[in-house]
Amino acid sequence: MCGIVGHFSAGPVNQQVYDSLLLLQHRGQDSTGIATAEDRTLHLQKKVGQVREAYRTRDMRELVGNIGLGHVRYATKGSAVNLDEAQPFYVNAPYGIVLVHNGNLTNTRELTDEMKRRDFRHLNSASDTELLLNVLAASLQENVGRRHLDASGIFDAVMKTHARIRGAYAVIALIAGHGLLAFRDPHGIRPLVLGRRPVTEQTAQAARTYRETYGMDQQLPEQEWVVASESLVLDAGGYEIVREIEPGEAVFIDESGTLHSRQCARETTLVPCAFEYVYLARPDSVMNGISVYEARLRMGEKLAQTIRRQVPDEDFDVVMPIPDSARPAALEVAHSLGKEYREGFYKNRYVGRTFIMPGQEVRRKSVRQKLNALPSEFAGKRILIVDDSIVRGTTSKEIVEMAYAAGAEKVTFASAAPPVRYPHVYGINMPTAGELVAHDRSIEQIRQILGCDHLVYLGVEDMRAAITESTDIADLEMSCFTGEYITGDITPEYLDYVAAEQES
Prior knowledge:
Elements: E1 3-8, H1 14-23, E2 31-38, E3 41-48, H2 51-54, H3 57-62, E4 67-73, E5 89-91, E6 97-105, H4 108-119, H5 128-141, H6 151-164, E7 167-175, E8 179-184, E9 193-198, H7 201-213, E10 223-228, H8 232-237, E11 240-244, E12 249-254, E13 259-263, H9 274-280, E14 286-287, E15 290-291, H10 292-310, E16 318-321, H11 327-337, E17 340-341, E18 345-347, H12 360-370, E19 371-373, E20 382-387, H13 394-405, E21 410-415, H14 443-450, E22 454-457, H15 460-468, H16 479-482, H17 492-503
Parallel strand pairs: 16-17, 16-20, 20-21, 21-22
Antiparallel strand pairs: 1-4, 1-10, 2-3, 2-4, 5-6, 6-7, 7-8, 8-12, 9-10, 9-11, 12-13, 14-15, 18-19
Helix pairs in contact: 4-5, 5-6, 10-11, 10-15, 12-13
């Protein structure tokens, strides 16, 4: 679920990348990194922790150049605290390449072996991003000495990369002296959007001064470009949304600012990750032409219909969301059922997302630090609590206990997503079935664990319909709800391997 961004600018790019990463901070808080290109010189800064606290003035001054990329990390492979596994990753041959990646590769064992036997490349970490970078570098290496590296040669290398790697991935790379590359997996599981804005006279004047100061080429582009995980980056920066990067497609922005694109995968289908709409993305983003906010409203509408069928006599007085991602669904539930909407839980915004914190005990403790219940909103009332999803159950159980402790007479708990019953292997930290509260359990068994009076889940088909309404998207990546893995390579043996890696 990492956040990635790449900028091609007329002038200095460091502040633009920094500002974009602040907007993507919700996608990962483990570490962050920025790289820039000053002609053929690459500059790189990587830090543990969040963006605002990570970089100092001296760090930003060293990030010289007009092309840059950035990353906020949420660890799904390797260590969350090891700076060596933070992104971006760099290789010096061929050309010099810096790369960031959102997603998970699913054939890392095979690729690691190939790096030793076939490619003769050394790996310094357990990160699948470093693997992906070296596959791309090896593919580019095959062109060295044959011809000048141009967009066509880069796209050929991406085609070879697609052929070797499997899984979910959105990738942005800087190739020293050449430009900015971005591509997306053939199923379009992880998001990536392209934007542009014109170079204004004011921008041009400042850019010329900057380029003269650092001895850079004075020829200015007509357009500035951005590729990012979410469209909110484009909105905040005044960019026009051009389009989503298509599944399997690669785009390359050369040093002159010219955009090149090519479909680089033989077979493609758009199957975006449902969890982006349920939880991961900010509500003010648009992904694959779908407003995240409106999708969550529709999920709330369908959840209300389910509640009406399953909860006897609508056994609650008020509807409350768990802030923040559940608010749209809760609002629509209250509206559809004609119930009062109230805010009973207050959030400490300086605590990270509990979903992405390592370890059950850390996550459990963080719930009480993150949320506080207002007793006056609970005392003597029957409460319907709406959350975006229930994954491990730790947070939900704590919230139910908080509601009763605050004086609630009855508690109904509703999830705006179906039961999470299976591991997610495409870039979300749900690697093992055993840690999922819904795995091999009935709804009644889950209710007993959570300790609520009633428990309601949105159905799979209702979620699919709510997200894809009025679109041409035929299906979603919903493996954590259905156990059906779109890449076709996820076996019980592989899931056992992932679980063992997580426990080691």
